[in-house]
Design goal:
- Helices cover 35% and strands 25% of the residues.
- It has 388 residues and is an alpha/beta fold.
- The protein folds into 2 domains: 269 residues, Aminopeptidase (3-Layer(aba) Sandwich); 113 residues, 2-Layer Sandwich (Alpha-Beta Plaits), CATH 3.30.70.360.
- The strands form 4 sheets. The protein has an 8-stranded mixed sheet with strand order 1-2-4-3-5-16-6-15, with helices on both faces. It has a 4-stranded antiparallel sheet with strand order 10-12-8-13, covered by helices on one side.
- A hairpin with a 2-residue loop joins β1 and β2.
- α1 packs antiparallel against α10 and α2 runs antiparallel to α4.
- The longest helix is centred in the last third of the chain and has 21 residues.
- The structure holds zinc ion (ZN) (2 copies).
Length: 388
């Protein structure tokens, strides 16, 4: 059996214990004192010096005294602002929940760190561990990049993984090129002029302006997006007014636009701004545009993926080619800057445990995937450094 997988299986109880501790203590955004504290403590126990380079953004180095390349292994650590309903005996003890599996990501990377530290002598370069906060709000990787996570030592390639509860344990979904969509989140405040509903000419009706803005924006998808390219525009909030006979002062619209293609994204972003501005002007109103998120699409480097897949072949995992996902992950910012690989780790529960999608309060992840993820991280790092 593959040595890392064998060792990871020996460490399985520890991986599960770490995962369950994190699962019981979810925190959100970049405010992860318990989680970050736990990770730092575990790294110290392994003899790895944790460095907090941004708020709750932790870096650890293994084999850093050597010449050679640097491989970055990334795990996100944050939970979601929701209440867990899994019914598990180790359910969340905080108002938040780990329903995206970031607790497993963190536990797998801690497992890989331990195994790589044990074999530090064999490393022909440096492994840089990146424990990232704030993925769900797309703020964590940006903060860590600005704080220099890709420098000193300079990162050559990066590996990241995400749990996938739709696929069975032992499978790894892979995608070449565009892997996850970009996400441009926006808050539009349409500012009109309130008045009595009986005399609409005395005011500027922001509901009318917002309705026109909404429909025109959707035409960007229907009429300006090439049929062979994917783009979605969703407004999850459209709010204004309090009463039947009062024209309100303003309407709030919040939404996200997602696509894969970089050029299309740039074009659509420009057109969104134009439509928002001109729709408002048409009716003598004004619309304020606030950026809520601006994550690029996540790109898996096809050549690096082939190389890494070769390294992890003897872990007996089954690779499943997958179409790109319209979900987003701020690991994308790393993939913009260094060649990267993104693995989707199968962790479907066994038997008749009901299946739920990520971000569902009832989702259950199969912990048997933990040793596999840890072994993949470790194997990719060790072999890449040996061969480059
Ligand atoms: Zn998520
Ligand atoms: Zn996630």
């Amino acid at each position: 059996m593959n040595e890392f997988l064998e060792r990871a299986n020996e460490l399985k109880d520890e991986l599960i214990e770490n995962r369950r501790y994190l699962h019981q203590h979810p925190e959100i955004r970049d405010d992860l004192p318990i989680t970050a504290g736990f990770v730092k403590e575990k790294l110290k126990e392994m003899g790895i010096e944790p460095v907090e380079i941004s708020k709750c953004g932790i870096v650890g180095l293994i084999g850093e005294k050597k010449e050679g390349k640097t491989v970055l292994l990334r795990a996100d650590m944050d939970g979601l602002d929701m209440t867990e309903e899994s019914g598990l005996p180790f359910s969340s003890k905080t108002p938040y929940a780990h329903c995206c599996g970031h607790d497993l990501h963190t536990a797998m990377l801690l497992g890989a760190a331990k195994m790589l530290k044990e074999r530090e002598d064999e490393l022909k370069g440096t492994v840089k561990l990146m424990f990232q906060p704030g993925e769900e709000y797309f703020i964590g990787s940006k903060a860590m990049i600005e704080a220099g996570v890709l420098e000193n030592p300079k990162v050559d390639v990066a590996v990241d993984m995400h749990m996938n509860a739709k696929n069975p344990v032992g499978t790894v979904a892979i995608c070449k090129g565009y892997t996850c969509a970009s996400c441009d989140g926006m808050k539009l405040t349409v500012k009109g002029k309130g008045c009595h509903g009986a005399w609409p000419h005395n005011g500027i009706d922001p509901i009318n302006v917002a309705a026109h803005t909404y429909l025109s924006l959707q035409e960007l998808i229907a009429r300006e997006t090439p049929p062979e390219l994917m783009a979605t525009l969703t407004f999850g909030q459209f709010a204004g007014g309090t009463s039947a006979n009062i024209i309100p002062e303003q309407v709030i619209m919040q939404g996200t636009m997602r696509t894969f293609d970089k050029d299309l994204r740039a074009k659509l972003k420009k057109r969104v701004h134009e439509v928002v501005e001109y729709s408002a002007k048409t009716f003598g109103a004004e619309t304020e545009y606030e950026v809520l998120s601006d994550v690029p699409s996540l790109v898996t480097d096809p050549e690096l993926l082939d190389i890494m897949n070769e390294y992890v072949k003897d872990l007996d995992v089954e690779f499943i080619p997958y179409p790109p996902s319209s979900a987003s992950d701020d690991f994308a910012r790393i993939t913009e800057l260094v060649p990267s690989v993104f693995y989707s780790i199968g962790c479907k529960p066994y038997g008749d445990v009901p299946l739920y999608p990520a971000h569902n309060p009832k989702i259950i992840f199969n912990e048997d995937a933990l040793p596999i993820g840890a072994a993949i991280h470790a194997q990719c790092a060790l072999n890449y450094l040996k061969n480059h």
